[in-house]
Amino acid sequence: MMEPLSSAVTICPVCRQKIRSTAEHCPNCGAERHFGPRLIESGICAFAGMVILAAISRLLMPMSLWTIIFAVVGLCAGFLFSHNRFGGDRWLGR
């Protein structure tokens, strides 16, 4: 089998085997390149933001419309946080 050019070869960050630099999947370990947050990461961060800000609102004042507004703001903030935190290119192993 022919070896690819050295400029076209990179190392898989999961299993440390040679793969092409344009590969989306590692043929050795099955890891895949992923862009942005996965659905579960977005959901967890959005839910955590909603719960945390709603809890802070409940500590500061009794249950009111402000608690719901704080929960919605927390939901949006958690979603945006997940896109900021997991927004890059990364390799996820199986």
Automatic annotation (TrEMBL):
Keywords: Membrane, Transmembrane, Transmembrane helix. The chain crosses the membrane at residues 39-57, 63-81. The keyword Transmembrane applies. This is Zinc-ribbon domain-containing protein. It comes from Gluconobacter thailandicus NBRC 3257. The lineage of its organism: Bacteria, Pseudomonadati, Pseudomonadota, Alphaproteobacteria, Acetobacterales.
